[in-house]
Amino acid sequence: MEALPEWLGNLSSLQKLHLLWCNNLMYLPRMQAMHILAIAHEFHTHNQFEKSLNATFIALIPKKSEAREVKDFRPISLVGSVYKILAKVLANRLRLVLHKLISASQNAFMKGQQILDSVLIASECLDSRLKEGTLGVLCKLDLEKAYDHVNWGFLIYLLRRCGFSEKWRHWIMFCISTARFSILINGSSCDFFESSRGLRQGDPLSPLLFIIIMEALSKMMDKVVGGGLVLGFSVGMEAPRLIMVSHLLFADDTLIFCDADPNQVLQLQYLLTWFEANSGLKVNLGKSELVPVGDVPFIEELADMLGQVGYYLQSDSMWGVGCEEPDHVQWSFTWQMVMEHIRKGWNLLSQHVKYEVGDGTHIRFWKDLWCGESTLQEVFPDLYRIARDKDALISAHLQVHNDQIHWSLDFVRAAQDWEFESIASFLDLLYSTKVRGIGEDVMLWLHSLQNGFTVHSFCHVLVRIGGCSFPWKSIWQSKVPPRVSFFIWVAALGKILTAENLRKRHIILLSWCCLCKVDGETVDHLLLHCPFSREVWDMIFALFGSPLGDAGKDS
């Protein structure tokens, strides 16, 4: 008879119990059972196992008849038996403490709780509110592809906040991050690929980890209710026995109770937006409903307000970059990092534009190119050093009287004798420059004053600078999803499937722009010159205090 491994005697009784359970469950021959026990011991000791054991085949199950698109299928993960044993052991251990972590508002996958519990509680809440005669709303929210969008960093953060040890967190992270997927098409597998977020349907751990994610939403709701920002429905007859119910959760289905108050709905919008940005879980507006409780005359306005969830800040707009410390998330700092990258590109672009001065409210007096061939900062460095406001706009120094232009300068000290010559040249240059004094400032593209700015001309500028090539690597190394990098790459090449490019491939169709229905749909028009695109660019340029002007117009 084969002797048991030496390390088996060093395990705790609970560990032996689970390993024995694995052995008995699978009814495997002794050699195979010992092999599985060795894998389990390796995982317990070194927090890892052979990654090939975590290979997963995805079967696409249609959600409806005549399914045609990918979203019409439900991906079911077919997990290997060895990994499933390890995951089942972890799941059983996790169930032992889950009741201490999950609040009573969640009923899914919890021992001793049933699906009907949520239905009965919701029915009682509605009945009590109707008897009170107070107007309210019931928000029925559905999360879009909930398992697929879970942010791993946020999950590990929650596990740490729940008190799980570092070893446990390593186990969970290894299980969810080392999965490799292959899609089964007509029963045949395709090439394997990896994921960067999400939980697998079919993994014994996934339901339990998901309700931990949803517990974050539950705690956030408790916080806003405790602060009086959102009021739930009261259940009970007398004051001492009144119970406030603000939300019920069952897996990815969420019920939220609140008054028919725009301020409370607005707070819900803020809360769901924050939750989406950190967890990756987005509200599926197509399956969500806002149900009036009582005769709520402005229910459409409330629905429109709640329907803006994720409009300004979608999970994809954060590009999948999660924060492991959500308590430290400061939106000003987050956008500061984004704007910093935009400014770097703007600093390069601004070297190749000049301005025509209107009222001067968007052009920097010293630092922008509007007077001569160089900026005033570069031509008159001595005067720039004594300028009182080095970031002043032209409008701060420009005065118009009787259609005459006058310049008012402001220095920190009086000019010295040796500076008079510079000041004279400075004033000559100012008064010799054509300035309208009224109207909007206009930005011009130096390399094509007639045709305006085009992506093609800017690419040529980048190639000419120092003999360097277009920064293709920066496109693929950016912290954005691959589909975003791919789109930028195709756009830079001018290969987007616009109407013009499709016509070049002998596909017969109208060449109108799909947005404005006025001009031909070229790459430059669609991304730059279309009125709809220009509105987006105007917002971006406004962040820098500069109008887009003629630099983005067609000739």
Whole-number mean pLDDT: 75
Tally of separate helices: 19
Query: What is the end-to-end distance?
Result: 89 Å
Question: What's the alpha carbon Rg, rounded to whole Å?
Answer: 32 Å
Which runs of at least 5 residues are low in confidence (pLDDT < 50)?
309-330, 550-555
Strand portion, in percent?
Answer: 5-15%
SS content category: alpha+beta
Largest sheet: 5 strands, mixed
Shape: extended
**How many domains make up the coordinates?**
3
The number of E-state strands comes to 16
What is the helix fraction of residues, given as a range? 40-55%
Pfam family, one: RVT_1
InterPro entries: DNA/RNA_pol_sf, Retrotransposon-Effector_Assoc, RT_dom, RVT-Znf
Domain Reverse transcriptase: 42-313
Organism: Fagus sylvatica
Keywords:
555 residues; alpha+beta; 3 domains; five-stranded mixed sheet; five-stranded antiparallel sheet; 19 helices; extended; disordered C terminus
Task: Write a structural description.
By secondary structure, the chain is of the alpha+beta class. The protein folds into 3 domains: 210 residues, no CATH class; 75 residues, no CATH class; 105 residues, no CATH class. Helix content is 42%, strand content 13%. The protein has 19 helices and 16 strands. Helix 7 runs antiparallel to helix 8. The radius of gyration is 32 Å and the shape is extended.
